[in-house]
Each structure stands twice: as structure tokens, then as C-alpha cells.
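Hello everyone,

My group is preparing for a crystallization screen and wants a predicted model to guide construct design. The compound we'll soak is zinc ion. Before spending weeks at the bench, it would help to have a computed complex in hand. I've included the protein sequence and the ligand's SMILES below. Output in C-alpha cell form would be ideal because that's what our pipeline reads.
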Amino acid sequence: METQMSYFQKHPDVTKSSFNTFMSKGQFKDVSIHASIFEARVTGSPNVELEVYSAPEQERMTFEHAVKQEFKPIENGHSFGPSWTTHWVRATLQIPSEFAGKEVRLLFNPSCESMVWSADGQPLQGLTGGDGNDRRHEFILTSKAGAKEAKRILYLEVACNGMFGVGDYIIGPPDPNRYFTLQPVELIVKRPKACALYHDLVVLSQIIDELSKDSPRWWQGLSTVDKVMTAYDATDENSLDACLAITSEFFKAKTGDAAHQVYAIGNCHIDTAWLWPYDETKRKIARSWSTQLGLIEKYPDYMFAASQAQQFEWLKEFYPGLFARVKEQIKEGRFIPIGGTWVEMDCNIPSGESFVRQFLLGQKFFEENFGERCKVFWLPDTFGYSSQLPQIMKLSGAEYFFTQKLSWNNINKFPHTTFRWVGLDGSDVLCHMCPAETYTAEAKANQLISSVKKHKDIGYTNESLYLYGFGDGGGGPSEEMLERLSRMKNVDALPKVKHAHPNEFYDYVSKNSKDLVTWNGELYFELHRGTYTSQAKTKKQNRQSEYLLRDVEMLSAIARSLGKDLVYPAAEITRLWKLVCLNQFHDVIPGSSIEMVYEDSDKIYADVLESARDMKENAIVALFGDSGMCATEQATGTLVFNSTSWPRTDVVAVPGMSQGLGAQQVRKQDQATLMVAASVPSGGVQIVSPVNDANVVPVSAYCDSNGHFVLENLYVTAKFNASGHLASFVDRRMERELIPKGRAGNVMRLHDDVPIFWDAWDIEINHLHKFSVMDASSITIIDEGPLLASIAIEIPVGKSSKMKQYVSLSAVSLRLDFDCDVDWHESHKCLKTAFTWDIRSKFATYETQYGVVQRPTHRNTTWDMAKFEVCAHKFGDLSEFGYGVALLNDSKYGYATLDSTMTITLLRSPKSPDTNCDMGHQSFRYAVYPHQGSFNESRVVQEAYQFNVPLVQLPVDMQVAAASELQGSSFFAVSDAPNVVLDMVKAAEDGSHDVIVRLYEAYGGHGKAVLTTKLAFGGVAKTNILEEQTESLDLKAAAGSGKDQSMVVNIKPFEVVTLRFKA
Ligand SMILES: [Zn+2]
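Reply:
Good plan to model first. Here are the C-alpha cells for the complex, ready for your pipeline.
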């Protein structure tokens, strides 16, 4: 035979282009590799017969219910819809006798998502319709068909949504009227050798694409494919053997000993809600995980990781059979539960206690169901990471942290891949951000090479994690990915790759890489800064839930410890915390989901708040029922309970006390009787009557000769000009004017808010350039003292919105409160309130979980500038030597400080993915709190707490109440350390009558706090946040205070201390 020499070296680009043609399904597909893939395929009767039952409305019914319905015949090309509806297809399949001995697959593509069910109701595998990259159309019916197969019946649950919902572009709001076309349903047989060659060639093409001509492997790769194209004959199956012999030569060359080691882990990121509602997620979990169980069976070294205890709990509840199969594979070490938290939560908005509950619920679930806690805290997709996470993680038994999201930063490149992350209190954990910069990698050569090239700490550690598998809407690795990975494990030109448990990677690095660098403090995400503000109501409901549950748990625990008649509602409290934690998912509370998700979350919060209010009421009745509690109309006073750990003095408003007997003032706004609750003991009780207020220096409201509206008490004078701006604010004790000349506070600014792409997510730096100042249309004096003075300011906002503010000052406080109601109808605008203070500081201080962080007030560097909008919890503070002012809030998280101006972003109006985001009525509160001394010497933390946690009040008959044994008592008090906050009192999780008390150091210094309690306990221990003892402590009789007991708590800067008081 004459041999024709190949001259490919003289025309490599032609060869490469020919190869691309050879691999494509385009015009030459009859002679390309694709011509060989299918050996046989049949469709239609008698091999494939289809019937459908369409469920009514958007009902997602069970298998058992669906199969009892009436099915009607359908053909290929059937249209399913509209969006969010479900259609059950019954497929009767007859494998032809000529398929005997072959693997036979069902090809089913309804152009949307679906689940394959067995005739006896077992969920078998998920399918992803459509022609996207993430498509999955095949289900293996049998690995070897018999000579005479009986008819088989399968059910296909067709869900009318794509992997990414039903928007017309990725974040487009859902189209309610989408229909999906059923592509021809076929029984197919593939040629195994053609498939194997195809996978070889795909890997070769990726290597050729990624390498350059200066690599010998590029030339060897090209030579290989050149030879394959020469040897291949689409009409001769035997040519496949020759081709496979050629490719195997290339794959024989191994990578070197010192090559980078990639630890590959399959995953399918399933957003617990995002472009679809929670109920669809439950099905996505079953679809994705059943698919992965199939791959685990097929590929013996494959490992798959899944996070979020909530998703496992849903599987357990709705798919018990599948859950049992998952559990089996967990035991085998192939299916890996990971993360340790209830959901992959947002890490900006949730409180410190919410963080604790995420881990407590998560780790407990993993331990109870799978016998093990998670060592890796797993947040591939969350929008920024609080500086308190390392401490909380460690206190829950998690030592390792994984993310990749900071690769999305839009200003600065994060400089590390593998490093020690040091938290606010000095705790450190091992952090890895996979250098492939994605959690949805597709087992591609270029991504593996990126794992080396983009590894920023490769001088210290030659390992990396690689997360592959379709994700966000679920899916996970495909057969193709696993085929490619099996070819790339050890081949020259690529790093070494192995399937591994993430723990194996972290344990190895932890043990072998001693020189890792550290990163101190928060992992601020330089993107998605609008998520501190979008979906205002959700954020407010979260804050309300967090503090209401605090009241419930504290009051219930105290009542039970006092032996009152109350069954501690442990199960209901757990149920509610699970719901609160669920809504903290990283697309729900940040505001980046579709409208349907917020309809769900509103219902969830309504449930949480209603049930929590009921439990609070029950606890109050149990605790104070015999202390003179009576109907409001009969009340002659009020009993207040102070849940904070310091004494406090407030003006309280008691609604409905019709007689207002002896009242110095009835508040006009709601006809509530005002009283001064003076020096209410910490964690304790006081009876308050209207007549106690005589010695209070009155507050007043008046209009001065300059036309300013003035609110004035013993401590401050606040003057508002006709625009509604705070034109002057004087601390009377120091005669200090806080507003610089010509500047103002409470300036409402309406900014253009047009991000680059991610609408609900991003507030971009250029929004700062363009704004108009909104002026008041009217100001009126409402209350004139003596206990409370207030004015009402009406402000037209933009073209169609308006705001009403009640600004009030009480006789007993320096705090100026702003209660706001907004009728909000803007588009791509955001509303801010701005305060300029006569204070100079390079840093502003913002509250974070269990502490504070400081961020620059200038834009020296790009790192400073990138923080043009930052997250704060209950306050932001601007202080210099000797003085400062804090801005407090009840539900706002987006702050910024430039020079001496601090702003709070109050509302945004993005249009995708929720067209109606934040439209309509919004209400929120903020406040100004001036203080002598710098932040560290202030009571800002306490004041912000009080602004969010009102005194618990109940109407009482004064005569009975005064005789109550509880009058003036203090259940918990913290003394000798003004920097220590008692944050939580709750029952122990283990069902014992032990009480858990959580404190934290709030300002950043050591403390030696004395914790005194009136409740009778047998001892006390320090625990981790899973409530396991770590240290025994002394509980002694408190000096000179009857039966009280006390203990000393030594606490370090920003430390979270959990104590377990033994019943
Ligand atoms: Zn996500």
C-alpha cells in the first residue's frame, strides 16, 4: 500500500481547523466523529408510546397521586406549559429485539426539567431538557437488553421551568407564559468505541486549545488528531480500533513527580431559592442527587459533595427512598455532606445569633443523620464574609473554609488562594479559594491548567480543589465530565487530578503547608453591594424575627427556671429558627430572587412572627400572670421587662390606657399614654405608673424666630429647616454644634441607580455621581412634651413617591428618632439619608456580628475606594477624639462614609429579577445618637440594642403589681465590664433544664465581667456553640444579695462566650 506522508507540521493551523470541523455537528457531520456515535435509534409506536396527565394550576403533586389520574395519548412535538405547571408523562417502551445484548437508553427532552420515575414510584434520575450546555437527555434503561424484552413503563414528571427558571435572559423576571416542546422521544444504542474515541478527542482538543506551539505536547496533540482523522472511516466500525490505538499513545505520557495536585470534587450548586421558588428546589434536589447516585454507581472512584442541611431534610421528608440511598453512599464515603450550616447563608445580614443557629441546626442535623459533623464550611457563592466567621466556625467544629466568590471582585483582585484567615477575635481557619475560580467547572483541560496558573500561593502549597458539575439550578457532573476526568488524571501537560473528599485536601495542606500567609479581617466582596438594601421588607422581617425569638427564648427560659407553669416550646422554637435560617439563604435575604420567592418568604415570616408572638405572650403570662396583669382598659400602670444586660431608662408608650390617669402626656400619633420607665434593672422587672414622672425635665417642640422647627431636651437641641434637613444639632452639655456650617443632616438624596448588569445585586460606584436632594413640602409640630416632642415632615420623592417622617426626641435621651413611611414607586433610583458631622476621622466604625469593623472614610487606594458601600448591622459610627455620632437603624444595612458625611441607603428600585422589588409601602426607623467620648468610650452598642429591642410591656393593676415578688428583680445582670453584652438566654438544645447564656465583647478589649443571676443553678460551664462543655467555671453566692449567684467571665476582644448553667 502506498503511504501518503502527512505534512501537518507545515500547516498546523489548517490541521487544527480541520480537527474542529471533525469534532463539530455542522455541515460535515455525516463524515465527522458524530457519524459513528449512534448505532441505532427508534421512536414512535410500537417502541415508544406516550400519554400525559397535566396537573391543575401550579400543583406539584406526589407520584402516588399523579399516577391515579387519567392520562391521554400525546405525540412527539407535544407542548407543555405554561410556566411552573407540571405534566406527568407515562411512557410505555418496547425495546426492539435487534437491540439485544446492547446498552439501551431512553432519550427524553421536553425542553425543560424532568424526573424519571419507575412504575413503582422510585425517583430514578433527573433530566435537563433544552439544548443548553447543561443538557442531560439520556437515561440508561438497561446495560444489556434481552432477546425478547417485555414492555416497560416509566413515568416522567415534566416541570415547566428551565434550569434557570423561566426568565427571557438569565436574570430576567419570569415569563408566566412559557411553553416547552417535547423533542422526539427515542430508544437509542450508542457505539462504546465511538464514544470512547469522542471523549479522547474532546480532551485532546481542549489541550490543543489551551497549550501553545512552544509546548511539545501541543505538537504531539496535533499530530495525534491528524493521524486519527487519517485513520478514521465513518463507514467502517473497525477504523475505531486504529483511532483508539493512536489516541492511547498520547495519553500514555505521564505528568512529572512535582506536578500540581488537583483534588476534584463533583458538586451541583442548588440555590435553595432564586429564579424559582422553594417548592421547585425540593424537586431540583431529588432530580440532581438521584442523577449523581447513578453516576456514583457507574464510576467507582467518583465522589460528590452536597451542602445545606435544609436540602437533606427536604429530601428526607419528601423523598425518603432517595434519602436512604444517599445515606448509604454517605456511609461509603462517596456522597459527601458538607458545609455544616442549615443553608449556604448570606454572611452580611444575619445576626451573630443567626450565624450560631445556622451552625447549631446544621451540625446537629449532619451528626444525627450521618454520624459526623462537617469540618469544611462551604460557601462557594455567598456575597462577602464577615470577620466573625472564623471564630463561629471554630466554635462549631469547622476548621476549614471554602469559597471562590471573591474572584468576582470588580475592582481589586484578591491576592490569595490558600491562606490562614484570621477573624475579628484572632481565631484563624484554613481558607481555600479554588484557583479555577468557579464551582461549576466542566472537567476541561483549560480549567485544570488554571488551577496551576491562577494559584496565588503555589510557592507554599502545590495543591488545589477543583469543583465541577453544572450548578446554581442543580444538575451536577455529567457522564461526559467523568469520562474526561478519567482521561486527565495523570497525563503530561496537565496537573495530576484525583477524586477526593475536600477534607483530604484540607487535612493535607494543613499538615504540610506551614508557611501560609494570613489575611486579617473581613473578606469584603467588591460586588453585589446593593444586596445590603434590596427587598427591604425581607431584611426587616429577618431583624424582627431575630429579636422576637430572643425575647421568646429568654422569657421562656426564665419562666421555666423559676418553676412557673410553662412547657418550654423547644420544638416550635427550633421550627421557627429553621425558617429564619432558611430565608437567610444567599439569594433570598440579599434580595436577588424573583418575586415568587418573596411571596414565599413573606408567608414564612408571617408564620414565624405570629407563632413567636404567641409564645412570647404565653411566656409573659407564665412569668407575670400573678403580678397584677390585667386588661388594658383596667390597667393603672405598666410592668416592663428589660431584656438587655444593663439598666435602662426609656419613655414608654402604653396604648389603650383610655383614662390616661395622671398622665403627663398622651402621644398624639396613636393616643398612647406616655410614662417614664426609669432605671429598669438589667434583665429585670419594674412597675411603672404615669405619676412617677414629675421630676423629669421636660422636652419641648417649637418654631424659633428663624423658622426652624426645634426639638430640645436637657441634653440636645435639634433644629430642622424648611427643607426638613437637620440644620443644627447641639450637644447642650458641651455646647458643641455637631453640624458644620452650611451643611446638614437628614438630607434625602435620590440617586440614579443603574448597575452594569446584576440589577438587584449591584449598586455601582457611579451611582454616587448623580443625585438630587429632596425637600420637605410641609413640617408640623405633633407632640410638644413634656415627655416626648415630635414633628412630622412630609417629603415628595422623585416623580411619584412620597415620604412621611416623624422625628421625635424624648425627655430622657440624647437619641433623635426618625420613623419613616414611604410610598415608593421609582425605577432604578435609590434613596439615601445623609448626615454631615463636624467630626474628622479616617475611619468609621460599623457593627458586624458580635462586634465592629472599621472601614476608611477616604479613597486613597483602590481597596479603600472599593468599599464605597458597606454593610452595617444596627449602627454606623463616626468618632474622633472625645466625641462621636452614631446612626442607628431598625432594618437597614447599606452604609457609606466619605469624609464627614455618613449615609444610609434606605430603598432601591431594581427591576430584575423581581420587577416589583420594594414597590409600594415601606416603613423603617433610624436614629441619631451623639456621644461624648470616642466610639470605644461610648454606649453606642447598647443604644443601638435598645433602639431594636424595646422594653417588654404589659398592662397591670398597680396595687397588685406593687406587691409582686418580681418587682425590681433582676434575672441576669452583667457588671464591671461595660464592653460585654449579654446577647442570648435560651434553653439547652439537649432537652435538659439547663440554660444557655451567650455573651460577647462588643468593643475590642479584654473584660472581666461579673454575671449575676437570680435564678437558682447548680453550676456553670463554658461551652462551644454546640453547647458542649469546654471549661468548668465557678458559680458562687453573690456578695450581700440574698439568694443571687454570680460568676466572673474573663473575656477577650470580640470573643463570643457561651455558658451553660446547670439546672
Ligand atoms: Zn448560589
